[in-house]
């Protein structure tokens, strides 16, 4: 029994006439009559009464047609679901990310992806770079956003593209003597109580600050320790000291704070997007398309890195 037999039976029941049903189906009447007869032999029951007034389903026919219609609906739905899955409109995306990615560009990317793909299930995990890199290589994540590219065993099987560059800036209370200045110097920072983050991803950031302040600087050794940039900003707003963090934290404005540049400029590790080189899932492709749309300067680099694997 094939799907066409179900369509033939349903069309015949709706039209009550072999000729009209055959016309709708786009076949001749004799083949339709033969297919219905073959169907009845396979089912083992007469499905239609043929009378001068028309063709009518028997009791067996009514029972058969009820399930046939449901089966045809399921077949149509299966085709729709398959098409949506192939376009990356359904499925699951597991994303690991460092907290600073929530400052930029992740909010815009997630908002756009959720709007365009509302039926994709997003599994979001805030993770340090080392943990997310390991999870990505192990197949426990589909995408990771890390500080710097993943390193270690298996990293050679990943595609990694920078999606954001950053540098150190300072934040302070608006009543601080340095508030209102466009920048502060390293010498000025050495005389202040500093506030820095001590998250799992911070060794690279702290290394950058040591480069900025000097390895023997006591300012960093006596710095107040914050969990993340939100705490840095909060402590700075309270007048505790001068907070140091990524320039992305300008995107978290808070009353009573002043942001300014630090000279000389000290770069921080890039935000890097990584995924499996052999991962061809439609949902991943859809997410990468959203990255291209939301981060236009990333598109060319992403296409260049993907070309050898396509």
Automatic annotation (TrEMBL):
Q: Quote the InterPro entries the UniProt record gives.
A: LysR_HTH_N, LysR_subst-bd, WH-like_DNA-bd_sf, WH_DNA-bd_sf
Q: Name one Pfam family in it.
A: LysR_substrate
Superkingdom per UniProt: Bacteria
Q: Which Gene3D superfamilies match?
A: Periplasmic binding protein-like II (3.40.190.10), Winged helix-like DNA-binding domain superfamily/Winged helix DNA-binding domain (1.10.10.10)
Could you tell me which residue ranges the HTH lysR-type domain spans? 1-58
Which keywords annotate this record?
DNA-binding, Transcription, Transcription regulation
Write down the PROSITE patterns for this protein, in alphabetical order.
HTH_LYSR
Q: Which PANTHER family match?
A: SMALL NEUTRAL PROTEASE REGULATORY PROTEIN (PTHR30346:SF30), TRANSCRIPTIONAL DUAL REGULATOR HCAR-RELATED (PTHR30346)
Identify its protein family. Belongs to the LysR transcriptional regulatory family.
- Its recorded name reads LysR family transcriptional regulator
Q: What is the lineage of its organism?
A: Bacteria, Bacillati, Actinomycetota, Actinomycetes, Kitasatosporales
């Amino acid at each position: 029994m094939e799907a066409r037999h179900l369509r033939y039976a349903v069309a015949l029941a709706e039209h009550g006439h072999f000729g009209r049903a055959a016309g709708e189906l786009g076949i001749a009447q004799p083949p339709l009559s033969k297919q219905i007869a073959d169907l009845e032999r396979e089912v083992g029951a007469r499905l239609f009464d043929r009378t001068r007034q028309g063709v009518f389903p028997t009791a067996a026919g009514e029972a058969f047609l009820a399930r046939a219609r449901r089966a045809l609906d399921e077949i149509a739905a299966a085709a729709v679901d398959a098409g949506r899955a192939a376009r990356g409109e359904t499925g699951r995306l597991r994303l690991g990310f460092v907290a600073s990615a929530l400052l930029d560009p992740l909010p815009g990317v997630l908002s756009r992806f959720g709007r365009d793909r509302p039926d994709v299930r997003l599994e979001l995990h805030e993770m340090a770079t080392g943990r997310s890199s390991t999870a990505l290589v192990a197949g426990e994540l589909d995408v990771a956003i890390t500080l710097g590219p993943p390193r270690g065993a298996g990293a050679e099987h990943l595609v990694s593209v920078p999606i954001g560059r950053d540098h150190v800036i300072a934040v302070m209370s608006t009543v601080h003597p340095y508030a209102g200045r466009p920048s502060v110097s390293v010498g000025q920072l050495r005389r202040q109580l500093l506030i820095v983050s001590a998250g799992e991803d911070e060794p690279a950031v702290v290394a950058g600050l040591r480069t900025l302040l000097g390895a023997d600087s006591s300012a960093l050794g006596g710095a107040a320790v914050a969990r993340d940039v939100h705490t840095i900003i909060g402590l700075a707003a309270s007048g505790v000291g001068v907070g140091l963090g990524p320039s992305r934290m300008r995107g978290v404005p808070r009353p009573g704070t002043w942001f300014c540049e630090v000279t000389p400029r000290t770069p921080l590790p890039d935000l890097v997007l990584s995924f499996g080189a052999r991962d061809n899932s439609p949902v991943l492709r859809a997410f990468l398309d959203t990255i291209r749309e939301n981060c236009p300067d990333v598109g060319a680099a992403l296409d260049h890195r993907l070309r050898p694997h396509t």
